[in-house]
């Protein structure tokens, strides 16, 4: 938020004060609306997404205790808990100032004021809003979060990013594993070298080798020219292997050999190529599931897991939900030119009541949709609809014994995993695209 984009509402029963403040602020900010009547606050706030309210504390009351100001302050905060309110009073009553700050006012100004003081107060609040709490790292995409779990991630990340240690990132789908992998690279000594991501879980056995290790012209029927593998492309930089938990044992053995020898041999070649990569792997399996010897080699786990990061599910990080929700609402309000939308208390309550099986990715989608659908400056509970595409939480899936429900849940899970890509999902489910579409219709997905 910048000062020139800020919308301010001023409520004061003194016409002279309104005129003076309007004149002072009009040329500096985007919009100034003034009213003598505090009863109009609700309507005005519904019509315009204000960023700031300047509110008089003393309306026509017989006794100037400022109570009326506190009453209207509370009303404003009920309508939009995020909005900043600066209170004005003619009485330098420090107790009242403290009380109003406790009740949620952002600042307090005493009449008669100096224009500079008001401008400074407005400017300071706008600046404060501009600073999204985020990881102070040089990464293009900020990682938002201030939960203890994310604070730990940030501390560890800063510590290990500059080393060449292999890293394993654990967490459910959509928790931000990709983002963390990217931030590690961006804060490493390899930041100016390539960052190469491969979703190894989605590769078939033949593709696995050609994609990772490359091939020579003529190595197989379709190999019409030499092609570099991803290991080679990542030389000097970072290789990020996503969904590592899903690769079959045979491919795990191939991977282990490459990591041990630090060289790859492209298909159809006799020569091995030395590789210098920093390896980051990610999986949505828990470390206990990953360590099941029937599905994953222990020696490979040790090799890829010098340091591990666990990103908790969003439902376990309530304060992050708040921050992320604000961040995405601001982001999409700007993207879709919706002014600065705010979240009504009912909207926030509904948001907090949802378990978000799809984690931050799901949150991002539902908020984008809510912003697009929003008709008023304050997002209403009805603007929030949860996507049927998200799979229910595992505990719910396991309770399910009805075959149709199991099929429906599996389809959800696979489509979610493939980011809505029908071709990939059909392939993974072992059915044709047409068969998948038939089932989508059947289950009204
Ligand atoms: N802490 C965060 N701050 C900001 N954006 C986030 C955060 N966590 C996740 N996101 C966003 O949520 C989406 C999903 O994140 P990401 O792809 O990193 O998750 P993931 O764990 O790698 O998912 P998957 O396991 O499905 O690959 C992305 O758009 C990402 O930018």
TrEMBL record:
PROSITE patterns reported in the protein's UniProt record: RESPONSE_REGULATORY, SIGMA54_INTERACT_2, SIGMA54_INTERACT_4
GO BP, sorted A to Z: phosphorelay signal transduction system; regulation of DNA-templated transcription
Positions of transmembrane segments: none
Domain Sigma-54 factor interaction, first and last residues per copy: 143-372
Record domain Response regulatory: where: 7-126
Keywords, alphabetical: ATP-binding, Nucleotide-binding, Phosphoprotein, Transcription, Transcription regulation
Modified residues (4-aspartylphosphate): 56
Matches recorded under CDD domains: AAA
InterPro entries: AAA+_ATPase, AAA_lid_NorR, CheY-like_superfamily, Homeodomain-like_sf, HTH_Fis, P-loop_NTPase, Sig_transdc_resp-reg_receiver, Sigma_54_int
Protein name: Sigma-54-dependent Fis family transcriptional regulator
The organism of origin for this protein: Cryomorpha ignava
């Amino acid at each position: 938020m910048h000062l020139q984009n800020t919308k301010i509402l001023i409520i004061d029963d003194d016409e002279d004060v309104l005129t003076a403040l309007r004149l002072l602020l009009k040329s500096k900010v985007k919009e100034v609306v003034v009213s003598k009547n505090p009863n109009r606050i609700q309507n005005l706030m519904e019509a315009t997404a204000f960023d700031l309210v300047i509110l008089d504390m003393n309306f026509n009351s017989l006794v100037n205790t400022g109570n009326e100001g506190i009453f209207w302050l509370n009303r404003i905060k009920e309508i939009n808990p995020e909005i900043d309110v600066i209170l004005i009073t003619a009485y330098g009553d420090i107790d009242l100032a403290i009380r109003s700050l406790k009740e949620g006012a952002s600042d307090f100004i005493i009449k008669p004021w100096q224009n500079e003081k008001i401008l400074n107060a407005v400017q300071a609040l706008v600046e404060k809003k501009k600073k999204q709490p985020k990881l102070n790292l040089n990464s293009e995409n900020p990682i938002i979060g201030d939960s203890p779990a994310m604070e730990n991630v940030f501390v560890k990340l800063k510590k290990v990013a500059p080393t060449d240690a292999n890293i394993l990132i654990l967490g459910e789908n959509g928790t931000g594993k990709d983002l963390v992998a990217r931030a590690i690279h961006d804060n490493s000594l390899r930041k100016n070298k390539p960052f190469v991501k491969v979703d190894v879980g989605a590769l078939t056995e033949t593709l696995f080798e050609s994609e990772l290790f490359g091939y020579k012209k003529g190595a197989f029927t379709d190999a019409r020219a030499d092609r570099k593998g991803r290991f080679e492309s990542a030389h000097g930089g970072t290789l990020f292997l996503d969904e590592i938990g899903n690769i079959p044992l045979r491919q795990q053995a191939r991977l282990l050999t490459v990591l041990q020898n630090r060289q790859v041999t492209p298909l159809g070649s006799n020569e091995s190529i030395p590789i210098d990569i920093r390896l980051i792997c990610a999986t949505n399996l828990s470390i206990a599931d990953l360590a099941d010897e029937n599905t994953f080699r222990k020696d490979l786990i040790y090799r890829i897991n010098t340091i591990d990061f666990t990103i908790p599910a969003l439902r376990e990080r309530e304060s992050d939900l708040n921050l992320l929700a604000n961040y995405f609402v601001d982001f999409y309000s700007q993207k879709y030119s919706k002014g600065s939308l705010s979240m009504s208390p009912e909207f926030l309550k509904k948001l907090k009541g949802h378990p978000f099986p799809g984690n931050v990715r799901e949150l991002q989608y539902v908020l984008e949709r809510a912003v697009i659908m929003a008709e008023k400056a304050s997002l209403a509970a009805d603007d929030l609809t949860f996507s049927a595409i998200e799979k229910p939480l595992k505990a719910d899936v396991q309770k399910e014994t009805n075959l149709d429900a199991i099929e429906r849940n599996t389809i959800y899970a696979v489509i979610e995993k493939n980011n809505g890509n029908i071709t990939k999902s059909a392939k993974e489910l072992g059915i044709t695209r047409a068969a998948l579409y038939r089932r989508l219709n059947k289950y009204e997905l």
